[in-house]
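call fold(seq) -> tokens
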Amino acid sequence: MTGGATVGDGDPNPFWKFSVRCWRQPEVEASCLRLQVDHGLNPNLLLFACWAAAEGLALEPGALAESPAGDWHRNVTAPLRAARSEARRLAPDAENCRQALREAELEVERVEQRLLYRHREQLTAPGREAGGELAALNLKEYVRASACAEGPALHDCVMRLLETCFAEADPAEMREILEESPGTEPGPV
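ret:
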């Protein structure tokens, strides 16, 4: 989702509505953008992992990388985001241009989220208890599949996202899930 853009929630997609509701919380926006800038993670996939958990859906291992939304992100969303960033650097006084790019970026993110929602059955598996622990498992799966370097800074940022989106969940349990070594069987969810 685009930082600083006005996000409307008139879209009927439940995932988009969840994202808009979460994005309006400053900690969610800040965490997603920090994870994007510092770790190369996609805010839409971070939010999808959280939305899926809220619906009781576990991410299928590696499925996000193969989704049609991944192609859309690589070929449309990311280049548009890069163009907006370059416009800010090259023409700091071209606010109208940057605003038009922000609005276009928001629309391509909406399409990306629509693609994720449309393909949710191929990306997730039902049968888990909805909530923060499942969100921690989903985010851990996404981070693992993205092959970004894990460490305390990444885990702290993911925890801020989890604690904001899933305030009712036990932070200690979510952190334990995030920090478990690969191959360790997580506790019951």
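Strands lie at 58-59, 124-125.
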